Amino acid sequence: MAQRQSSQTIGVCNLCEAMCGLLLTVEDGRVTSARGNPDDPLSRGHICPKGVAIGDIHADPDRLRRPVRRDRATGAWNEIGWDEALDLVAERLAAVTDTHGRAALGIYLGNPNVHSLGSMTHGTALVKALHTPNTFSATSVDQLPHQLMAHLMFGHQLMLPVPDIDRTSYFLVFGANPMASNGSLMTVPDFPGRLRELKARGGRMVVLDPRRTETAKVASEHHFLRPGSDAWVLLAMVRQLFVDGAAAAPSYARGVAAVEEAVAPFTPELAEQHSGIPAAEVVRMVRELAAADGGVAYGRIGVSTHEFGSICQWAINLLNLLTGNLDREGGAMLTSPAIDIVGTGLIGRGGHGRRTSRVRGLPETSSELPVAALREEIETPGEGQIRAMLTLSGNPVLSTPDGARLDTALAGLEFMAAVDIYINETTRHADVILPPTTALERDHYDLVFHALAVRNTSRFTPAIFPKDRDARHDWQIYRDLALRTTARRSKKLSLADRAKLWARMSISPTRLVQVLLARGESGVTISRLRKHPEGIDLGPLRAGQLPGRLQTPDKVVDLAPALAVDDLTRLAAVVPPPSDELLLIGRRHQRDCNSWMHNSERLTKGRPRHQLLMNPADLAARGLADGALVTVTSRVGTVKVDVLATDDVMPGVVSLPHGYGHGRDGVRLGVADQVPGVSINDLTDPERLDVSGNAALSGVPVTVE
Ligand SMILES: Nc1nc2c(c(=O)[nH]1)N[C@H]1C(S)=C(S)[C@@H](COP(=O)(O)OP(=O)(O)OC[C@H]3O[C@@H](n4cnc5c(=O)[nH]c(N)nc54)[C@H](O)[C@@H]3O)O[C@H]1N2
Ligand SMILES: Nc1nc2c(c(=O)[nH]1)N[C@H]1C(S)=C(S)[C@@H](COP(=O)(O)OP(=O)(O)OC[C@H]3O[C@@H](n4cnc5c(=O)[nH]c(N)nc54)[C@H](O)[C@@H]3O)O[C@H]1N2
Ligand code: SF4
Ligand SMILES: [Mo]
C-alpha cells in the first residue's frame, strides 16, 4: 500500500468577514479536515460549516484551472493558453475603447475581491489603469450608505466604527443576522460565544428585524418592524435624546442644533405608525442605550439596502455620538490595525456626486456608479454606451436588482471578459474567462477585515498549496491585463507613467504587506508573523482615538451632512403602505455563501432552504396551502417558488434567500444545477434606490398567488 503523506498546517478562511484561523490536515495535495484554530487570538477556535468545506473549492472538478474561450457560434468552451487569453482580452478591450471612447468599457467588481490580498493590492490599480467612468461593484448592493456617511461625517469612507462587542452592555441591532452571517462591518468570529459572554456579564442584545432570525432567537429582546421603516424609528430615537436632555455632542463635532431641528418632526408616534413598534418601546430602548455603561447601536445590510439607507446609517452614527458611545469602551470604536488602510491613504477617502451616470443621471460615490444602473448603460444606445464588460469575481446576474434583464443585456455585448473561477450565471456571457488560483494557493493578509475587527490582531498566512506552474494568481492576471491593455491602446501612456504602472503592478502582494507593516506603528513585522502563523494579539480596541484620527480637513465631525438632512424631505413624504401589501425581504443561511458554493455537496445537502417564507395568516388570507408552488410578482418580474408557512416572518412580510436561481441555460455548475430555488433579484427593482445610489433590495412590494 502506498504511504499517504499527511500534515497539519495553519490556514485561514476567507469566505466571510470573520476571517477565522483554521487547522488544516492535508493529505496528497488535498484538505482532508479543517478545524478552528484555538490559538488564533481573534477567532479562538471558531469555525462554521463553510470553513469546514473550504477544501471543496480547491478540489472542485467544476472549477476552472485554465483560461477558457467561448465559441460564439456554438457556445462551446475551449481551454486556451494564458498568453493567448490575456492578449485576446487586452486586444479587444483596447479596440473597443479606441473606437468608442473610454466609457465603452464597463467594469464590475464582486465581493470576493475584498477577501483576496492580491485583489486588494492590485485590483484598484487595474481599474485605475483601464480608466473608465463606468465602474460598478457589489458595494452598491451592500454597504454604500455606511461608506458615504463615514466619508461625510468622519472624512473617510472606511472609518467605520465597530461595536466593541466584548465589552458592551447594550447591543442594539438593526437589520443584521450575525448568527448566520458571522458579522459584517464588524469582524466577529465566534459571535455565538461572544454573545454568551455578553449576556453572562449582564449585558443585553436587542434586535429589530422583520424576521425572527437566528440572531433574534438568541436576543434578550426582539421586535418585528415593517421592512423599510427603520429610518422613522432611528430618527425618533435621536429626537428622544434631545427631548430627554440626554444628547451630548463631543467637543469635536459641529451641527448639533441642525440635527435637533431636523429630527424634531420624527416623533415616536410616527415611528409606531410606520414600523408597528409601539412608541413607548422606541422611547424605552433609546433610554436604555443612553443609560448603558458602554452601549452601541449597530445596523447592517437590512438597513443599508433600503430606500433610506443613508438616513439610517447617519442616525445610527448619531445615536452612538450623542450618547457618548463613540470611541468609548463598550461602544462603537475605531480599530488600530497593524496596517492602517485609512490613515495611510491606501484606500481613498471617498467622494460623492462629482459626476453622474449617463442615462439616469445617478451620482457616483467613491468613483463608482450604482450597479442598479448597469443594465441601462449597456442597453441604451448613444455616446458613452458600454459595449464591453470586464467582471472581476462577481455574479451580478444573481446579485443585483432585475438580474434577469441584466442577463439579457450582457448577452448583447460586443465583448466580455471575466476573472472568475467558475462559469456561472454571469460569466457564461464572457468570451474569455481567466481563472486565478484559489485561497489555499495564495498568501493571505487581511487588509480590510483587520481594520473592522472587534479586537486588534495581525496575522499572515502563507499559501497551503504551491501554485501549479501553469496557474496565475489574481494579482498577476490584474498586472498583465493592466500592462497589456494600456500597451495596445492607441493613446499611449507616457514613458514615465508606463514605468510607474509597471513598478506598481510588479511588486507582489506579500512584499507590499511587508512594506506596509514596516511603515506602521504596531511593531509587527512579517518575520514575526511568519513565526506566529496563528496571529499576534494587539489587544482590545482602544478608546481615545478621536479627534486625532479623524480624516476631515478640520478634524471635526459633521453631525448634519446636507445630503442626509435634505433627504428627510423625501422620507417625510412617504405614507405607510396599505396593510394588505406584502413586502419582500432577503435572507442568509449559515451554509450559503452569496451566489456561489452551491456546488459543495456538504453545504447543500439536507433540508431545502430556498422557499418563500410567509406568515400563516397571509397564506390563509389568500387561500394558499403551506408547501404550495406560488407565483410571486413585483413591478419588475415574476418567479414561481415553493412557499413555507412560518410565524418567524411578521404578517405582511415574505422572505427569499439571495444567491439562488441556478440552472439557467448554458451554465455548468455541477450539483448547483440541482439546487432548487429562484433568484430574489428577478423581483428586486433597480428604480428603488437610496440617495447614495445603493439598491433598495429590501421591502419590495410583491403579490403572491
Ligand atoms: N436581494 C439581495 N441581493 C443581494 C444581497 C442581498 O442581501 N439581497 N446581498 C448583496 C451583497 S451583501 C453582496 S456582497 C453581493 C455579492 O454579489 P457578487 O459579488 O456579485 O456575487 P458573489 O455571489 O459573491 O459571487 C462571487 C463570484 O466570485 C467567484 N469567486 C469566488 N472566489 C473567487 C476568487 O478567489 N477569485 C475570483 N476571481 N473569483 C472568485 C465565484 O465564482 C462567484 O461567482 O450580493 C448582493 N445581492
Ligand atoms: N452564511 C453567510 N454569511 C455571510 C454571507 C452569506 O451569503 N452567507 N454573506 C456575507 C456578506 S457579503 C455580507 S454583506 C454579510 C451581511 O451580514 P448581515 O447584514 O448580518 O446579513 P443578513 O443575514 O442578510 O442580515 C440582514 C437582516 O436584515 C433583516 N432585514 C431585512 N429588511 C429589513 C429592514 O427593513 N429593517 C430591518 N431592521 N431589518 C431588515 C433581514 O431579515 C436579515 O435578518 O454577511 C456575510 N456573511
Ligand atoms: S465564520 Fe465560517 S465562513 Fe466565515 S471565516 Fe469563519 S469559517 Fe469562514
Ligand atoms: Mo456583502
Characterize this entry briefly.
With 705 residues, the protein is of the alpha/beta class.
Major sheet: order of its strands? 5-4-19-18-17-6-7
Structural class: alpha/beta
For this structure, the CATH topology of the largest domain is Rossmann fold
Percent range for β-strand residues: 15-25%
- Ligands bound to this protein structure: ligand MGD, iron/sulfur cluster, molybdenum atom
**What is the CATH class designation of the largest domain?**
Alpha Beta
Number of domains: 3
Give me the CATH architecture of the largest domain, please.
Answer: 3-Layer(aba) Sandwich
Q: Report low-confidence residues grouped into runs of 5 or more.
A: none
How would you sum up this structure, described in words?
- The chain folds into 3 domains: 68-142 and 346-441 and 463-495, 3-Layer(aba) Sandwich (Rossmann fold), CATH 3.40.50; 160-333, Dimethylsulfoxide Reductase, domain 2; 578-704, Barwin-like endoglucanases (Beta Barrel), CATH 2.40.40.
- The longest helix has 19 residues, at 82-100.
- Strand 15 and strand 16 form a beta hairpin.
- It is α/β, with parallel strands linked by helices and 705 residues long.
- It starts with 5 loop residues before the first strand and ends with a strand.
- It has a 7-stranded mixed beta sheet with strand order 5-4-19-18-17-6-7, covered by helices on one side. It has a 6-stranded mixed barrel with strand order 25-29-26-28-27-30.
- It contains 23 helices and 30 strands.
- The protein is globular, with a radius of gyration of 25 Å.
- It binds ligand MGD (2 copies), iron/sulfur cluster (SF4) and molybdenum atom (MO).
- Residues 110-112, 116, 138, 141-142, 301, 393-396, 399, 419-422, 424, 436, 438, 474, 586, 594-596, 658-659, 680-681, 684, 697 line the site of one ligand MGD.
